[in-house]
Protein: Probable dual-specificity RNA methyltransferase RlmN
Amino acid sequence: MSKPSIYGLTVDQLAAWLAEHGHKKSRAQLVWEGLYRKRVTAFSEMPELKPECRTLLEEHFAIQTLEEHTRQESADGTIKFLFRLQDGNLIETVLMRHKFGLSVCVTTQVGCNIGCSFCASGLLSKSRDLTSGEIVEQVMKVQLFLDGRQNNERVSHIVVMGIGEPFDNFEHMSNFIRVIRDPKGLAIGPRHITVSTSGLVPKIREFADSDLGTNLAISLHAPNNDIRTRIMKINRAYPIEPLMEAIDYYLEKTNRRITLEYILLKDVNDQPEHAQELAELVGSRRNLANVNLIPYNPVDEHSQYQRSSKETITAFYDTLKKNNISVSVRLEHGTDIDAACGQLRSKQIQSDRARGAKANRAANE
Structure:
């Protein structure tokens, strides 16, 4: 049986666990310092702990549960990691360089059941949720990679926008945030953490009521129910009207700005009338909302969608601006590698399946 990742515990949870097993709660701080400040990769590298405490931890937990399978590096500094989990599943994690610092995009599920037709993540259905430890370890793997380059760089921002729907794994996602924002650990402030959801209305309300305090992004991607239902199956369960009501609840409860993600698909949702309709939808929320326009990255050569032209993107942007809507165009990262989220994983799994089928044919000949 594989052991759970110790990264999945907050310092308070670890202290309680140690107390239950006959050790002082204060030893949790020593473990915490070893994990997040010294960044050890084995319990044997914690000499400040008593031997019996190290043995206990080794018997019940693992520090390293992810194995790097593939790494792609872009000319713009973006690095995409493909990690293999203990059960053999593959997940993606991405390091992006910005003027404001280094951002890591983490995955929360193995596959995705939301089924957005434009997204590579949904090409393969969800097989399971990731544990909070597996999500934290993605950040730690990237930080250890940066440590190895000896440039004194540190991960400063987190986006929970990788494979999967974070709000469909709400408990582990929440615990992940509590671990990484701890000031005695990675100390990534909540204002430097953004969680994205496709629009699970009840969870948006629960998120608003939580103490997480992070930024929220909504994958809107359409100005009306007709288009949104065609490209996002989630709209059948949570149409735009209850979604906007949940957004209003979040805005009133937190008084925090929200990001509305909008991927531009040629001749689908990128026309002038769509921009005007979107401006009217944002309407009175304009002071607490920013629309982030996303140029589409085709999933593969068989994709049913095409990328909007630069002229179309500019016109869409200008229409929103004229309606006093705060709007930006997402900077693209890793366009010379498998840029779309989930694309590298999907390609690797398809390649593995093809090799397996070829081997089976050869064995039967």
